[in-house]
Amino acid sequence: MNDLLLMNGYGLYVWSAFIFTFFSFTLLYIVTRSQLLKERKKFFDKFGSLNVEKATFAKNQSINREILSNYQKI
Amino acid sequence: MFEYLKPNKIFAISSKAPKYVLILFIIVISIGLSEALIFSPEDYKQSHSVRIMYVHVPAAWITLGIFSGVTFLSIFGYVTKIKNFFLIAKSLAPSGFVFNVVALVTGSIWGKPTWGTWWAWDARITSMLILALFYLIYLLAWRIFDDKDEVFKITSIIAVVGAMNVPIIKYSVEWWNTLHQPASINILSKSSIHTSMLFPLMIMTAAFALFSLLIFLMKYNTELIKIKNKGLDRL
Questions:
Q1: B221 CB near a chain A CB, below 8 Å?
Q2: Is B49 in CB contact (< 8 Å) with chain A?
Q3: A14 neighbourhood in chain B, CB within 8 Å
Q4: Are residues A21 and B42, on separate chains, in Cβ contact within 8 Å?
């Protein structure tokens, strides 16, 4: 375990490179996901405020139907 | 052929795919990390510091691949006038930029024990920094310009000009005297890297590629929903 952490004195460099990489990945994932959820929420709010006629018209578009029915949580 | 590139066709897949790509990424990265940090051997010269290669090299490969992709998509979009190409290019750029930053930072960390310095203004490192600036300008252009035709034109120009830097990055270690070592992996000739190191490198590359696919899918979905939100406003 000590060998894995210290790596002949190179541990600080190796671990900081890996930690920086995965910190960047996590940050990018969180930011991208929160943007997606924000837009999705906006879509549902807007769709909910439409009257029946407009909602029926909007539902004719396949992407709208996809967002409403098939969109899975990520 | 372009029928399959229509937003509704892609969205039918991209709205469901992220969950599965994320699971696959976690599996592949777990294998890659255990290979890179535990099972792969240390280098006879660089000792354990060589392990930084397993994050540095895949990040550099993928950022170059993404920028080339962004350029081709922008050119196709401009020639065919199919806006979806621009949308795909725009969705690819954020992960390309992050991979570029990762390549620069991990390269800098690797430089300290290997060359004795965090940074050197040599051809490879400087050209990678220039690529990061092109990514940044490309992403900023999408934020700054509202007019669609204008933004398509400007981002295409940025991508094409930035792409000229890609071969410079690739051949910088051959054209100039640099601190950076020449390529150890060649597709056309024999690679100078041992299979015990090549295997974890390939696994980590696959994991990074899956991560960029995951971010691309999420970003593409966000962009499409944004367009649909504007459509609902117009109803």
A1: yes
A2: yes
A3: 37, 48-49, 51-52
A4: no
Q: How many domains does chain A have?
A: 1
User: Which residue's structure tokens are 């750029």?
Assistant: B93
Contact B225 A67 (CB under 8 A): yes
Of A14, A29, A58, the CB nearest to B48: A14
| pTM for the structure as a whole | 0.91
What is the extent of the structural domain holding A46? Answer: 2-70
Which of B19, B52, B211 is nearest residue A14 as measured by Cβ atoms? B52
Segment among A29-43, A46-60, B83-97, B112-126 with least mean pLDDT: A46-60
B229's CB contacts (< 8 A; 6+ apart) are: A39, A42, A43, A46
pLDDT digits 0-9 by tens, B5-15: 777 788 888 88
pLDDT in tens, B11-27: 888 888 999 999 999 99
Q: Residue B62: which residues within 8 A CB-CB, separation 6 or more? A: B95, B96, B99, B205, B208, B209, B212
- Flag if B105 and A17 touch (Cβ within 8 Å): yes
Which pLDDT band, with edges at 50, 70 and 90, does B216 fall under? very high
The mean pLDDT of A7-24, rounded to a whole number, is: 95
Q: Is the pLDDT assigned to residue B2 strictly greater than 70?
A: no
**Chain B, nearest residue to A37 by Cα:** B222
